[in-house]
Amino acid sequence: MTSLIGIILAISLMIIMFGMGLSLTISDFKRVVTYPKAIFVGLTCQMILLPLVGYLIAIMLNLSPVMAIGLMMLAACPGGATSNLLTHLAKGDLALSVSLTAIASLLSIATIPFIIQFAISEFSNEDQMIVVDSFSMIKQLFIIIIIPIGVGMFVKSKFSKFAEKMEKPVKSASAIIFSLVVVGVLFSLRDVFVEYVAEAGLPSILLNVLMMALGFLAALLFKLPRPQAISISIETGIQNATLAITLATISLNNAEYSIVPAIYGLLMFFTAAIIIIARKRLGVR
């Protein structure tokens, strides 16, 4: 991809993160005290279980280096603004969902470089080994995640009425931007897309379905209420595909690593829709 597309991706992600910031308050970060067990279960699933399952899928399916690294990049990027919307539609605990997204976003600044470097070391061919500049990646993550979220939170705290008016339009714009990002990535990789789509589809859907199931089961194991179990399930199963695509394009300068996140970005809505429809049809509270 060209540097122009990389810049567009970064700006798009910053807009999405700004929109997330408009829905956050300091109290969202304080819920780690209010819901200690739910936060612990959710973050354990997101930050530890998710990359572990991604690694096991890559090993069990004997994925090619490009697919394996792409899958691990996706597994390194938990949560995202989309998970909050889906949690709301599925009648989950929205406050818990927002809190998990906010805290996981902060923690991922430190974990993403480590996971990506591990994936490259584990799956790359020796003659194609890439060294991840962790410091540069942390700076990029800070710029495209922390600063926009911080600005969004500042706007919400100082101009609450304006933030309330802007929250829905920005979320709608974020959804459109996300869709355009996925379409743009797939179009730019059209020459190799058909070659990789069969290999990328199975690990993408497996990561999504397995993590949603494991997140839900973990919540039930710890005897959390059903709405919190739904939130943890979605937060664990819905990844920040836009961030993974951006990192592949900008930090690693290899658009092929973004194939799995792009495919995943399309498939995750189908599985989430099943949960939403089931909740509404069954009238589960």
Task: Give descriptors for this structure.
83% helix, 0% strand, 12 helices, mainly alpha, single chain, globular, Na+/H+ antiporter like fold, 285 residues
Please give a structural write-up.
This protein has helices spanning 3-22, 26-34, 36-60, 65-75, 81-89, 94-123, 134-158, 160-188, 190-221, 226-237, 241-251, 259-282. It starts with a helix and ends with a helix. The protein is globular, with a radius of gyration of 18 Å. The mean pLDDT is 79. The chain has 285 residues and is mostly helical. It has twelve helices and no strands. It has a single domain, classed as Up-down Bundle (Na+/H+ antiporter like fold), CATH 1.20.1530.
Brief digest:
The chain has 285 residues and is mainly alpha-helical. The protein contains 12 helices and no strands.
| Largest sheet composition | none
Q: Say how many strands there are.
A: 0
Listing every helix as H and every strand as E from the N terminus to the C terminus, the arrangement reads HHHHHHHHHHHH
| CATH level-1 class | Mainly Alpha
- Tally of discrete structural domains: 1
Helix segment tally: 12
Helix-strand category: mainly alpha
Assign the CATH architecture. Answer: Up-down Bundle
Strand fraction: under 5%
| 3D shape | globular
Kindly provide the radius of gyration, computed on alpha-carbon positions and rounded to a whole number of angstroms.
18 Å
CATH topology label: Na+/H+ antiporter like fold
Span from first to last CA? Answer: 46 Å
Helix content: over 70%
What is the average per-residue confidence, as pLDDT, rounded to a whole number? 79
Low-confidence stretches: none
